[in-house]
Design a protein that fits this description.
The complex is a heterotrimer. Chain A is an all-alpha fold. In chain A, helix 2 packs antiparallel against helix 3. Chain A is elongated. Chain B is mainly alpha-helical. Chain B has one domain. Chain B is about 65% helix and about 5% strand. Chain B contains 14 helices and four strands. In chain B, a hairpin with a 2-residue loop joins strand 1 and strand 2. Chain C is mostly helical. In chain C, helix 1 runs antiparallel to helix 2 and helix 2 runs antiparallel to helix 3. The relative contact order of chain C is 0.07. The chains are: A mainly alpha, B mainly alpha, C mainly alpha. Chains A and C meet through helix 1, helix 2 and helix 3 of A and helix 1, helix 2, helix 3, helix 4 and helix 5 of C.
Chain lengths: ~100, ~375, ~180
């Protein structure tokens, strides 16, 4: 059981790293990757809890998170590309106009 | 004892993969020469002389191998690769530049771990399963390794630091992820037919006869799937009519333009290992693996396993040869034709195939 | 935590730092790939075999290839010269360690309330093989599973619509990007 606590700790640190990345990085694609990392950290926690609880509900939840992440990546990257087309930059600070 | 068996299995599987890859190299050299009405490599070692008496008996063999081009392709080429200057383009990360060919080869070698080489057999009371990793979901693992192999190409193209490399890498990445979809869907249809993801069990499921007449091979159960997988696999190996990423008339050599020496050869090794892996998949999934139609070998006997292994290898070699012949006979696609074939032909066909398979399975 | 678990966790964390730290987005992407692959290893250590393979297929095989594709397509240089300064990373580090320091004890406390004996009894059932996960997905979670396919469909349509253009210009082909979801 103590080992599960360690996995939760790893997940926590990874999640925090991702959150920090979202806050301090300006490149939209890196921000996107940090969000993916946060999702993954939560997935790890789900899997660890699933192991601890002795049922598969956590793993099923991870499966659904993966589905959402796949859809999110397709849409998110398409948004980043269309932003790049209009302002020729993917930095979040550059996309400051309310209207183009 | 367990560990010893495992180590032996790893060594054997690695050797099979590498031997097949080098056989493919030779087949490609001599085969392309035959197809193009050339002679091909036949000099290195063909006229070797020696005055030492103890070397005399070996000389005819060496000469024969040299005349066949074996020494040239297997020995001279690799030695030349080793001694060539190792060139790293300026501005590229040395680490990533060296990492790319390794990533291109490693996943292919890993994928061999789930493939069975022969039926299970018993020797001295120990049952041996001739595959390294009988993991859950073996077919998925092959698919996963195929998708990891994309990174070798992408990193190689990026560290090349020029337009040709980047274009080649972009083409390769788009092509590989596009053709992975029909490939995965064919796998799903196969999984529905045989009810398992384990490659060994799929092969075992093909041993019986359908209605007592036709062998229950994948090609009989999934003819459409076979055609789709053949096309998708040829595109995944980036060869044949699908070699857009390394189209030499437009992109020099595509993603490995800036590679030389042993790193360049590693890419070729990866490519030929991929051919061998793909031939293995076709033989195991669609042609019954070690099955000889209408002949039943006793289960568990070591000689039966040996015969099965040889039969499997014959099938694998046939598919290696088929791929090489296709590569040297068909002209290259245009890029939009390639994408159209993937997205507008193979994907709908494989989805239809999947639906029909599922309906048949439910109805049966 | 087993040795493999420790090793893979260390790899995942180091790569995670790399994602946030490196200035070149391509290096961030490579670090994230290492992170995702070591996460797949961790899943495997935790007996979630199907998820481990699915992680490699979905994240490493599809999502990250797409990200790399976009990065190489836009051909971005490292983040522009505007300096981050010292304050923002320091503040981020402080806030991050504060979050970890507050959340971790509460997690551990909650663990202590659960009886170990009760948990040990359940351990036999948590093997995440393909068959087990499939039975869950097509059994109790069938509605959610079907709905998730709708989410994917909407994702595909959205991506195609977003990358569609009125007039042709230099850029990616719409079909190449939108289709893979």
């Amino acid at each position: 059981m103590t080992s599960m606590v360690a996995y939760i700790g790893v997940s926590l640190v990874l999640f925090t790293l991702g959150a920090i990345g979202v806050c301090i990085r300006r490149n939209a694609i890196v921000v996107f990757m940090c969000i993916e990392m946060m999702l993954n950290a939560v997935n790890l926690a789900f899997v660890a809890f699933s192991k601890l609880q002795g049922n598969l509900d956590g793993q099923v939840a991870v499966f659904f998170v993966m589905v959402i992440a796949a859809a999110e990546s397709a849409v998110g990257l398409a948004i980043i590309i269309s932003v790049f087309r209009s302002i020729v930059s993917v930095e979040t600070t550059d996309a400051a106009q309310l209207k183009w | 004892m367990e560990l010893l068996i495992l180590i032996v299995k790893v060594v054997v599987v690695m050797n099979v993969a590498l031997m097949l890859a080098s056989t493919c190299t030779w087949l490609e050299r001599k085969g392309s020469a035959l197809i193009q009405d050339r002679v091909g490599a036949n000099r290195a070692g063909a006229f070797v002389e020696s005055k030492r008496w103890y070397l005399k008996p070996a000389l005819p063999l060496v000469r024969a191998m040299g005349w066949l081009g074996l020494i040239n392709t297997l020995l001279c080429d690799s030695l030349k690769g080793l001694w060539k200057e190792d060139f790293v383009p300026s501005g590229a990360s040395k680490f990533l530049h060296a990492l790319a060919p390794i990533i291109a080869v490693l996943p292919i070698m890993l994928a061999f771990a789930v493939l069975p080489l022969a039926p299970d057999f018993t020797v001295g009371g120990i049952t041996i399963h001739p595959r390294v990793a009988p993991i859950d979901g073996g077919l998925l693992f092959v698919l996963a390794m195929g998708s990891v192999a994309v990174y070798g190409v992408v990193i190689a193209g990026w560290t090349g630091n020029n337009k040709f490399s980047i274009l080649g890498a972009l083409r390769a990445a788009a092509q590989m992820i596009s053709y992975e979809l029909p490939m995965g869907l064919v796998f799903v249809a196969l999984i529905i037919v045989y009810g398992t993801l384990d490659v060994y069990e799929i092969v075992e499921g093909q041993q019986s006869l359908l209605w007592g007449v036709v062998p229950k091979w994948g090609i009989v159960m999934q003819p459409v799937g076979f055609v789709v997988l053949l096309l998708a696999g040829m595109a995944e190996t980036k060869r044949g009519p699908f070699d857009l990423p390394e189209a030499e008339s437009e992109l020099v050599a595509g993603y490995f333009t800036e590679y030389s020496g042993m790193k360049f050869l590693l890419f070729w090794l990866g490519e030929f290992a991929e051919i061998a892996l793909f031939a293995f998949l076709l033989a195991l999934l669609f042609f019954g693996g070690w099955d000889i139609p209408w002949v039943a070998l006793p289960k568990g006997a070591w000689w039966a396993a040996l015969v099965g292994h040889l039969v499997l290898m014959a099938k694998v070699l046939f598919f290696c040869l088929l791929q090489i012949v296709i590569r040297w006979t068909l002209p290259r696609f245009r890029y939009d034709q390639l994408m159209n074939l993937g997205w507008k032909m193979l994907l709908p066909v494989s989805i239809l195939n999947l639906i029909v398979t599922a309906v048949c399975k439910v109805a049966a | 935590m087993s040795f493999m678990g420790f090793l893979l966790s260390a790899m995942a964390l180091a790569a995670g730092v790399g994602v946030v730290w490196s200035r070149n987005p391509l290096y961030s992407a490579f670090c994230l790939i290492v992170n995702l692959l070591s996460m797949a290893g961790l899943y495997s250590v935790l007996d979630a075999h199907f998820l481990a393979v699915a992680q490699v297929v979905v994240y490493a095989g599809a999502i990250m290839v797409l990200v790399l594709f976009v990065l190489m397509l836009l051909n971005l240089k490292a983040e522009s010269g505007r300096k981050l300064g010292v304050v923002r990373p320091l503040a981020a580090f402080a806030i991050g360690s504060w979050i970890v320091a507050t959340a971790y004890p509460s997690v551990v406390d909650n663990f202590k309330k659960v009886s170990i004996h009760e948990l040990q009894e359940n351990l036999w059932r948590s093997e995440g093989t393909v068959r087990a996960i499939g039975e869950e997905l097509y059994g109790r979670y069938i509605v959610q599973f079907e709905l998730s396919s709708l989410v994917l469909l909407i994702g595909i349509v959205g991506a195609v619509m977003l990358s569609k253009r009125k007039q042709p210009a230099i850029g990616p082909r719409p079909g190449g990007l939108g289709g893979k979801a």
